[in-house]
Amino acid sequence: MNEDQLNDQNLREQLIECGQLFHSRGWSVGTSSNYSAVRNDSPTEISITASGKDKGRLMPEDFVVVDHTGVPIAGESQKSSAETMLHVKAVELFGAKSVLHTHSVWGTLLSDFYGDEDGFEISGYEMLKGLEGIGTHETSIWVPIFENTQDIPTLAAEFEKYIADHPDRNCYGYLIRRHGLYTWGTDVFSARRHIEVFEFLFEVVARRMTMTDLPTPIRLA
Question: Using CA atoms in the order 85, 96, 103, 11, what is the torsion angle rounded to 10 degrees?
Fold first, then answer.
């Protein structure tokens, strides 16, 4: 096994661990969710979960390698996730090395509650410091929400347009309405940390909203 193959195997093992963790937390149940990691930069090659796999029981062979257009490279026989282009777009726009997608209860509920407002703000929580580059709890992030659609190229284009239209907002992840969370990182570990941070914050925000006489989260103008 050469160095590239060893690197790819290591990335797959890390993504398998993510699947086991997320499944145990109820964030990736059934065959929902998809995970990826960049195994080669030039040319771009991304290992991504194959379609229809139980994320709590992933095996090294349950991945497909795609190129920068989301098309499986020569020799691949399995079908990649229907949402492959959303992974490709995060790699393209942010130089992400890993992209993770979960389907939690709290994220799904918040995506629906704030869907008509296209997102919501999270401010002041210590856990925000777990997001890359944030060094203080005295900060705010905006979580954009996009309408759920089976037209993945259109959704990818909407995400790209949002980033171009809001250069003043650091984007750490986004929600698809009544669907789930997408986030990314400089490696699998940082992407996994972002999932954990977001899922914690989503639960805090949603539970806070159910408590008597407490206001809902502040919203950006």
Answer: 100
